[in-house]
Amino acid sequence: MTPEPGEPDDAVLLRDVARGDEDALAALYDRHAGWLTVRMTRRCARPDVVDHAVQDTFLAVWREARSYRGSGDVAAFIWGIGIRRLIDLTRRDGAARHRPPWRAAEPQVVVSAEDQVLAGLEHGRLGQALAGLSPELRAAIEATVLDGLTCAEAAVLLGVAEGTVKSRCHRARQALRAALAESPSPARKAWGTP
Amino acid sequence: MTEHFSSGHADRVLLAGYAAGAVDEATAWSIEAHVTACTTCRSALSAQVDAGRLARNRSVLHVRLALGDTGRTRRWGIPDHLLRLLAATPSLRRSWLLSVVGVLAVVTGEAVLARYSLGGPVRGNPSQQALVPFLLVAPLLALAGVAAAFMPWFDPAYRLVAAAPFSGFTLLLVRATSALAVAMVPVACAAFAVPGPSWLPAAFLLPSLAVCALALAAVTVVGPLAAAAAAGAVWVLAVLLLAGAHLPLTVVQWHGQAVAAGVLLAAAAVLFLRHDRIELGWMR
Amino acid sequence: MDEMTLDTQTAAIRVDGLSRWYGATQALAEVSLALDRGITGLLGPNGAGKTTLLSVLATVAEPDTGQVSVFGLDPRDRSERVEIRRRLGYLPQELRYHRHFTVARFLDYIAILKEMTDRRQRAEEVARVLAATGLEGQARKRIRALSGGMRQRLGIAQALLGHPDLLILDEPTAGLDPEQRLRFRELLSDLPGDPLIVLSTHQADDIAAISPRVVVLLEGRVCFTGTPAELAATADGRVWASGQRDERAHLSWRGGDNLWRNVGDGPPDGAEIIPPTVEDGYLLLAHAAVTR
Asked: What is the pLDDT of residue C1?
């Protein structure tokens, strides 16, 4: 659901939710539940757990809408709530043992280097360095860096001990530093920004 | 592969690949970071998710909101589903509580008036007789709440309860405990206001428990109406007999408490042994 | 009744010589039935014993004499009774509600009574039955604010909770307008799992549209079992049209086409015999029972 011009933007909807407007929550759901489902599915393969997590997320948004300080995207706010709901459910179900199977498979959609430059998706060197890491190290980086989880939370999500997460992050950072230090690269946009 | 990112947005192929888990991590992370900020790509990504699944979660979310789901399965250590059963208990409704408070106000007022019309503070038995209405009524109010828990006439949906597999004993216990707890609060408050000994407020707990337990135990033997009537009659008789002997407070003094404890234990034993005979709403 | 010979040994519900009294009144007299999967309609006037029979099948009332077997379970035995209830959905006649309840909370309450202790499972079930009965928009509404038709739909919704194998519906179409009756019929035919459905009504046209099997109950006795077509056929040759009211008929009323429809045992010679409906068959049976 792309908001039409004239329709309220997410921050306005969230403010309405904080005031108890259930229709605003429904509108937020229609806009955000889709990507939330996909993003969660990449971290937990059990669709029923993801369904529960998505519901729990919007219930939590309903309760915590007031805590949105207007800084950053509403989507990031929702993800911050969502990932923690997912971790809660994982902690109870042990769903982390069911990691998505495709993590080991060969990526089928490959973005060429030219396209990356064209689109500003400039993670060329970083991307290669990441590809050089093992899947467990990449998962640890994803949890701690991308999702912003603490090591304890990441441990629950990944289904390993907290110490394991710490050492994997450490090894990942060392490997990335080594790979990126191999040759100087031209100035590029910071990784992750569109 | 054609451009997947033209004009700064991810195209459908790339998003489909991401949704299917067919892109590498670095690309996925870029997409996720991008989607967080881009409404166009968010809606394009939503289109990749099964619409039926999204609709189903939406309607379950709507129901959970309507149910006031807070995400907790236990509150004060009690499972959430038992707490929700209380919502159907008649003796927890405002109208019921108001009636209880009303009745208590009447007997309390009467006791206060009777005492002060005899002129002066308490001394000796005559003013104790003024407490008789209060002594009669207080545990009966608790009994009424418990009786409402097992008499079909107070439960508009009693036939649904009868036809349901849920344990009648558990339901009755949940309702009766809450009815008792709720009745004891105004009774204790009223007992403070009534001109009597200072230990009076606490003295009602055991006799009320005993009378209610008697009713519950009787329900396993006779019908609901007979059980409630019998338990009430036992108490009324005890109070009136002792009042007739000019010793009304005995019923809540040490001897009374001991008898109440005995009745409570006996009734609890009967209830425990015969609890599976409790079937609310079952018509013989 | 040849096309309906049910093997009574394996029928899902078997009733043999069931009688029940309320005080001095005999509500059921030696009722014997065999019911199987699918829909069975119980047809009879008020006071015929339909509610009593359904109460016994729904394990709400005890049989006084006779044998009852529901899915092989005996409702006289307490633990088997509870087992029947685990597979049961029941809509009693004139169901009353806790009026302060909202629709969703009431359904949640019934779901708990059906032993659904997991709140997520309950929420999914409640959402499912709300959708099935078209009540999704009413989840937050208090029951006292609902119309009569919606309250009836709510009664059907609570019966559907938990995917029961046995659905007992006492006058489920009471208070529903024709469009809602149509939706109710569609709902019944769409139920997954092929449950055994017994529903009662005092309207013959309802039965004809919904159920492939009819049981006519009059004054506590079974007077007919068969298909609606067979019930209509019992009035073959005993329904005729005339220009005015015919006193010889048991019943005579003016139809929409200004002709009088007469139902009775002795159509006059030369009378225009018209094809009987289910209602005609039922009326003849009812008359016979009353004049017995």
From this structure: 40
Strand, coil or helix: what is C73? strand
CB of C97 within 8 Å of any CB in chain B? yes
CB C49 within 8 A of CB C219: yes
Residues of B in contact with C58 (CB under 8 A): 163
Residues of chain B in contact with residue A22, where contact means CB-CB under 8 angstroms, are 65
* Residue from C112, C138, C166, C198 to probe the interface with B (highest B Cβ count within 10 Å): C112
Q: Do residues C5 and C67 both lie within one domain? A: yes
- Report yes or no: B32 at the C interface, CB cutoff 8 Å: no
Sort out which chain C residues have CB atoms less than 8 A from B171's CB and list them. 113
- Which pLDDT score is estimated for C109? 95
pLDDT of residue A3 exceeding 70: no
Per-residue pLDDT reduced to its tens digit, B117-146: 655 454 445 567 778 888 888 889 889 988
What integer pLDDT is reported at residue B127 of this predicted model? 62
Q: Is C6 on the interface with B (CB under 8 A)?
A: no
Query: Do C119 and C146 have their domain in common?
Result: yes
Q: Is the pLDDT of residue A121 over 70?
A: no
Produce one character per residue of A130-168: b if its CB has 16 or more CB atoms within 10 Å, e if not: beebeebbbbbbbbbbbbebebebbbbbbebeeebbeeb
Name which of A141-145, C159-163, C218-222, C277-281 the model is least confident about: A141-145
Burial of A176 (0-12, 13-18, 19+ CB in 10 A): middle
Say if residues A20 and A62 touch (Cβ distance below 8 Å). Answer: no
Show me where the domains of chain A are located. 1-105, 106-183
Residue C184: give the domain boundaries: 1-87+164-227
Distance CA C50, CA C69 (A): 18
Listed by number, the residues of chain C in 141-170 with a beta carbon closer than 8 Å to a beta carbon of chain B are 158
Q: Which of B67, B80, B163 sits opposite C58 (nearest CB)?
A: B163
Average pLDDT value for chain C: 89
Interface check for B97 against chain A (CB to CB < 8 A): the answer is: no
Contact at CB, B46 and A79, closer than 8 angstroms: no
Which member of B60, B93, B159 has the closest CB to residue C127?
A: B60
Q: Which residue from C133, C195, C192, C188 is spatially nearest to C164, judged by alpha carbons?
A: C195
Whether the CB-CB separation of A92 and A34 falls below 8 Å is answered with: no
pLDDT tens digits, one per residue of B258-274: 999 999 999 999 999 99
Domain boundary among C195, C227, C259: C227
pLDDT (0 to 100) of residue A186 = 52
Residue among B15, B27, B59 with most chain A CBs within 10 A, to mutate = B27
Residue A103 pLDDT class (50, 70, 90 cuts): very low
Q: Considering only CB atoms, which chain C residues are within 8 Å of B91?
A: none
Q: Which residue has the tokens 């409640």?
A: C126
Q: How many CB atoms lie within 10 A of CB B147?
A: 26
Least Cα separation, residue B123 to chain C (angstroms): 49
- Do A10 and A73 form a contact (C-beta atoms < 8 A)? yes
How far A35 CA lies from chain B's nearest CA (Å)? 6
Fold of A106-183: Arc Repressor Mutant, subunit A (1.10.10)
Residue scoring higher pLDDT (C185 or B117)? C185
Same domain, yes or no: C24 and C53: yes
The residue whose two tokens read 């009636």 is B99
CATH code for the part of the protein at A1-105: 1.10.1740.10
Residue B267's pLDDT is 94
Residue whose structure tokens are 């379970």: C73
User: What's the mean pLDDT in C35-57?
Assistant: 93
**Residue B107 or B144, more confident:** B144
Residues of C (37-96) whose Cβ lies below 8 Å from B: 55, 58-62, 78, 81-83, 85-86, 88, 90, 92, 95-96
Are C188 and C59 members of one domain? yes
